[in-house]
Amino acid sequence: MPESPAVPAARPTPSDPVELSAEDGKLVVLARGARGRVGAVEGAAVRDSDGRTYAAASVSLPSLTITALQLAVASAVAAGATRLEAAVVVTEASTLDGAGHAAVRDLAADAPIHVAAPNGTVLGTVTA
Questions:
Q1: What is the bridge-based pairing of β-strands 53-57 and 59-60?
Q2: What pLDDT, on the 0 to 100 scale, is given for residue 112?
Q3: Residue 95: band (very low, low, confident or very high) from pLDDT cuts 50, 70, 90
Q4: Among 28, 106, 110, 121, which has the highest number of CB atoms less than 10 A from its own CB?
Q5: Which long-range contacts does 2-9 make (Cβ < 8 Å, 24+ apart)?
Q6: Angstrom distance (rounded) from CA 51 to CA 71
């Protein structure tokens, strides 16, 4: 198996909040639901280029730690997605984790990644 590139340690800071489209608003609802169902630290949702959505919560086990955004991207890829249109992370943090950011960028250099608070308020958007 080829080695994966190093995950960026940087935590991208979201820009000012933007008005979400209805489709991106649905991603916030899905991410909040994924987080709430299991009481996870984070929830995330992504939409692929076919309009399919994937939601996930962060996982922290002794043998496996994966961010919600990494898991949502992995679910999309496992279902055959090759490009993402948008992503949302619901978190108590004010920045986006570097590993989740890198996972989205593997499939889309320009997809917006919206960061939202647990109550669904969008804190900002990462576009780079």
A1: unpaired
A2: 94
A3: confident
A4: 28
A5: 7/98, 7/99, 7/102, 8/98, 8/99, 8/101, 8/102, 9/98
A6: 18
Give the residue carrying structure tokens 């989205």: 104
pLDDT at residue 7, rounded to an integer: 42
Radius of gyration of the chain (CA): 13
- The structure tokens listed for 104 are 């989205």
Q: In 10 A of CB 20, how many CB atoms?
A: 18
Strand partners, 48: 84
Report CA-CA distances (Å) from 12 to 38, 92, 96, 116: 26, 15, 5, 14
- What is the DSSP secondary-structure string of 19-46? PPPHHHHHHHHHHHHHHHHHT-S-EEEE
Report yes or no: 44 and 55 within 8 Å, Cβ to Cβ: yes
